[in-house]
Design brief:
- This protein has a single domain, classed as FAD/NAD(P)-binding domain (3-Layer(bba) Sandwich), CATH 3.50.50.
- The strands form three sheets. Strands 4, 5, 6, 12, 13, 14, 15, 16, 17 and 18 form a ten-stranded mixed beta sheet that branches. Strands 1, 2, 8, 9, 10, 11, 19 and 20 form an eight-stranded mixed beta sheet that branches. A two-stranded antiparallel sheet has the order 3-7.
- With 489 residues, it is α+β, with helices and mostly antiparallel strands.
- Helices cover 34% and strands 25% of the residues.
- The protein binds flavin-adenine dinucleotide.
- Flavin-adenine dinucleotide (FAD) binds next to α1 and β9.
Length: 489
Amino acid sequence: MNFEKEYDLICVGGGIMSANLALLAKLLDPSLKILILERLDGVALESSAAWNNAGTGHSALCELNYCPEKENGDIAINKAIDICTQFETSKQFWAYLSENGLIKNPKDFVMPVQHHSWVLGKENSDYLEKRFHSFKEHFMFDSIDFTRDIGKMKEWFPLITKDRDEDEIMAASKIDRGTEVNYGILTDNLFKILNDEFDTPVYCNSEVLDIDPDPDIDWTVEVKNTKTGTINNVDAKHVFIGAGGGSLLLLQKVEIEEKEGYGGFPVSGEWLVCKNEGLIKQHEAKVYSKAGIGDPPMSTPHLDTRYIDGKKQLMFGPFAGFSPKFLKEGSNFDLFKSIQFDNISPMLGAFWHNLPLTKYLVEQVLMSKDDRMESLRKFMKYAKDEDWEVVKAGQRVQIIKKDEFEGGKLQFGTEVISSKNGSVTCLLGASPGASTATSIMLNVLEKAFPEILEKQKELLSEIVPFYNKTINEKLFKSQLKRVNNTLGL
Ligand SMILES: Cc1cc2nc3c(=O)[nH]c(=O)nc-3n(C[C@H](O)[C@H](O)[C@H](O)COP(=O)(O)OP(=O)(O)OC[C@H]3O[C@@H](n4cnc5c(N)ncnc54)[C@H](O)[C@@H]3O)c2cc1C
């Protein structure tokens, strides 16, 4: 492969994170020399692929784990505000690309699909009503609707209410501006812009083996051509490790003290995918419920309308499970290889304090299709085995890090690890992931290229008007209207 000798930035991984970072960087400074390396045959084949994730535009409209109940019974919505702001920032970036003719048809990857929360039982229904009142008071969520009436729910999601007794206790909420996103197509679009407009292609079949300090420039990246076995060494001033589940193993090879103590816990996933066209037609929503007590947030089941492979789909899940691989196309030794002297104590601490999670994952792995169908029947009472098939989802690696009190803890979000001078940055963790990629990558740019952000303040606020702003109702609603118009939402 014809690499140049030296780059300003090397992005490891051809997923949505590298795509966002490289394109933002090029828009702000077209003179930057950027190299993007991907080990597989094409881009967006791991977590960013449509079948591998749930395609939710996570904006806290329906996901109840972002709104915990406090000890005094109030509902905390600060996390929801944060997630909503980050998703709107991603939408602003897509709108900017559309307005400038770089994305031709946003409907190819983002579609309006109502977001609902739906719960069973009195206690959960009371919680949902309290959340509704808290949401109603905040301008980001004041379009929320709530009901305890099954008749109303029949209009919202008939598959779930069919064959239910009128006296069953349940409640639901609805926000119309929810989205379904095909992150695979979006990632393809972003890399196409990089290739066509900025002469920055992705080099596929290029696996990064190591990242070493270099006395002349900052880093030397060792790249293997997976087709021919040839090894190349390429120099870079900055390296971003956006290798998804593979990031931890690469970070561990980089000689920076900030990597110390990080470990990872892999979680695999599976969907039930509907094969019955009649059922698929009847559902037009993403319906999230509540995770069981003690179950992790990624276990929250949902019944989702999706748009994949040019077709409307209906999916239930994801069911979590355990696999020692860090990537779907990874190795069974990944988890074992990641255990090192500096993270053994955090890993044991996290394991010891999360025994219910381990038990939950073991139970999930042992689930047969019949068991999964039983979970689905909590949503759709009459779901028939022959209408559904099991399909593999993507692999996530949850972060394990040092904790003062427990030795180690499991973290469910994402985290950017950076060397002191920002010349190496790495993204660990999974959720809410793809939805918030633009904000996360702006955070990477702050660490790696603060001088570019400082110089391009004006352009940046054109690309993402929420960046570094206090968001009041007027700003939020005016931008929401503009962006939704542009994206056809
Ligand atoms: C089951 C599931 C459901 C999800 N649901 C949602 C959702 O509804 N909404 C949402 O916003 N997010 C969701 N996510 C999270 C989201 O999919 C991820 O956060 C996002 O896709 C991560 O993008 P990435 O670019 O970091 O990683 P990836 O898309 O995994 O890309 C990383 C790339 O790096 C490559 N790579 C790895 N190692 C190397 C190496 N050594 N050299 C070169 N290349 C390498 C890999 O082949 C891969 O192509 C979900 C994830 C899963 C697994």
